[in-house]
User: Which sequence fits this backbone?
């Protein structure tokens, strides 16, 4: 993926994409605002949710060991994975041990993060997405662009075309008379997936929460496909990020009240599935849990950035973000898009790395206007703007020793040189008066409050900068000159 500015420029040129995003995000925002407004103690609930997650992170090692102990006592097998490669190897091995040629999947961000579908495909194992939006993305040979609604960039006419073209190549085909009515499209997906649910012997899931006290994993979803995956197959493999653990069963209370309102704009999720190890004669008889790091301990070590690990994947910050609404998720180059992705990816992968991927990751903290809307809607009070600024400082620090400094660094050094000596500053002030008269030739606009701004300034860097920002026009007379001319303001 290219750096965010390049990818965003391409996305902005897609008018259909912008229309789809604006319609979807505004609808979800309105639903969320309505149900959140019903809760008088919403801010207290946010504080409680943040406290639960923060307490878990501050003693994470203890809770993870307790989780492993509880899971093992209830018949589950626990695996530890340091990175994506180890996690994929574990899942592939288990599937191969059961001669599985296919697996069904619950919607899972973490399996997207590690590229599990691709890893399974390399070993001849088909991974079928069963969430409707994930199915649309998979059949369309596409990438998810939203945490909650991966196909948010598609409209229903596009979905109809995808179903007609691709369903028959991997299973039950869509009806020839398929229309673009949402209920009809959902019905076609249901018939297509039913045979996969009934046939699969192995299922893969993530988890919204893992309870250390009881060894319980929790998945919340809206369609029932998760319930099918979690109960029908003989073998269940759950890949869980280590940050999903909470100490006690009671800790679910604020999280399950915050999540549905913040994500789908519902008072509660239609399906909340919990499972604790193996229950003889009921559900999967072999349960594996893969506890995944993959950069999470790197994020945990960052005193400012560690709060990003509180994230409960509700996507409220995406729906509130003016940048995401115009560019969509693909521009972020990660399974985690939007404001949370702009901090989570650099925290887990690290800033200042060489190569194209490093440049792409380093661009993400700048994919924000710092308006603060993301923090206002975050159910667990992650101060995303604070972390963005923190990560920007890391990116700048990593590039201080570059052989060829960036234009921004040169400008900052020039400003420091000017402001460090009063005589230099006086010279700059005189020069700015001349610049003000020169810039007047390129057109002026009037800003609110009567302030003047120069128009678009020529030059490679200046034209790009002033093409998207108002450049205040320098005054024709400096303060020092005015002071001398007016004898200290007394004339």
Assistant:
């Amino acid at each position: 993926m290219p750096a965010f500015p390049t990818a965003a420029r391409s996305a902005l040129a897609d008018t259909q994409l912008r229309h789809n995003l604006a319609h979807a995000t505004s609808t979800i925002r309105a639903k969320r605002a309505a149900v959140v407004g019903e809760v008088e103690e919403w801010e207290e609930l946010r504080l409680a949710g943040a406290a639960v997650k923060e307490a878990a992170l501050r003693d994470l090692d203890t809770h993870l060991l307790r989780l492993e102990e509880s899971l093992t006592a209830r018949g589950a097998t626990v695996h530890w994975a340091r990175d994506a490669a180890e996690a994929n190897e574990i899942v592939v091995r288990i599937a191969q041990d059961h001669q599985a040629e296919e697996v069904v999947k619950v919607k899972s961000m973490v399996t997207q993060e590690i590229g599990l579908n691709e890893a399974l495909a390399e070993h001849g194992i088909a991974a079928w997405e069963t969430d409707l939006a994930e199915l649309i993305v998979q059949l369309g040979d596409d990438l998810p662009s939203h945490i909650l609604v991966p196909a948010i960039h598609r409209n229903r006419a596009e979905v109809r075309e995808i179903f007609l073209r691709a369903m028959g190549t991997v299973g039950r085909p869509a009806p020839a008379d398929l229309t673009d009515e949402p209920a009809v499209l959902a019905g076609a997906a249901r018939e297509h997936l039913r045979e996969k649910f009934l046939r699969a012997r192995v299922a893969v899931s993530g988890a919204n929460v893992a309870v250390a006290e009881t060894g319980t994993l929790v998945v919340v979803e809206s369609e029932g496909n998760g319930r099918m995956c979690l109960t029908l197959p003989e073998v269940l493999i759950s890949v869980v990020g280590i940050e999903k653990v909470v100490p006690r069963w009671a800790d679910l209370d604020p999280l399950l009240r915050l999540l549905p309102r913040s994500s789908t704009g519902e008072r509660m999720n239609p399906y909340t599935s919990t499972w604790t190890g193996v229950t003889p004669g009921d559900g999967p008889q072999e349960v594996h849990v893969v506890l995944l790091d993959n950069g999470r301990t790197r994020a945990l070590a960052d005193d400012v950035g560690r709060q990003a690990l509180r994230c409960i994947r509700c996507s409220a910050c995406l729906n509130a973000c003016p940048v995401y609404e115009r560019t969509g998720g693909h521009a972020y180059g990660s399974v985690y898009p939007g404001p949370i992705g702009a901090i989570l990816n650099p925290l887990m992968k690290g800033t200042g790395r060489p190569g194209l991927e490093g440049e792409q990751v380093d661009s993400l903290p700048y994919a924000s206007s710092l308006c603060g809307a993301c923090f206002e809607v975050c159910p667990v009070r992650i101060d995303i703007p604070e972390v963005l600024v923190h990560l920007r400082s890391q990116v700048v620090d990593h590039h201080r020793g570059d052989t060829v400094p960036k234009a921004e660094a040169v400008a900052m050094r020039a400003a420091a040189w000017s402001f460090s000596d009063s005589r230099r500053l006086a010279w700059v002030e005189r020069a700015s008066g001349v610049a003000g008269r020169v810039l007047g030739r390129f057109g002026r606009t009037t800003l609110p409050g009567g302030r003047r701004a120069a128009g678009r300034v020529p030059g490679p860097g200046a034209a790009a900068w002033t093409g998207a920002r108002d450049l205040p026009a320098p005054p024709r007379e400096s303060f020092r000159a005015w002071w001398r001319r007016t004898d200290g303001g007394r004339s």
